[in-house]
Amino acid sequence: xxxxxxxxxxxRRLVNEQVEESAAYVEAGHAFALGQAVYDRRVxxxxxxxxxARRAGMTQPQISNIEGGxxxxxxxxxxxxxxxxxxxxxxxxxxxxxxxxFVTPEGxxxxxxxxxxxxxxx
Length: 122
Description:
Blueprint: H1 9-14, H2 23-45, H3 49-56, H4 60-67, H5 75-84, E1 88-94, E2 97-104, E3 107-108, E4 113-114
Antiparallel strand pairs: 1-2, 2-3, 2-4
């Protein structure tokens, strides 16, 4: 394929072409969506990465890596992180899409972050 025939994934989707996504691409999208959800909740609470790390028994670089989509925590670590952010988390994984939503005692937050969403599309 030469350069004039190349199209981005976005362009292919816009013209309704079938787009094959590699497993690594999908996994990166999940990691990015999780990181965006953690970042959004942390900012909503007005907390620094260092404060979230202290609350979760983690280090600030670990929080940075999660928020940047560079690292996906284990379930036990994710549980500590979610408690540090004063909420519960619901996760909806459906093939190549994912939604990570923080839920507080008042109910679901209006902001959702997912790989299909505007703010975290990969």
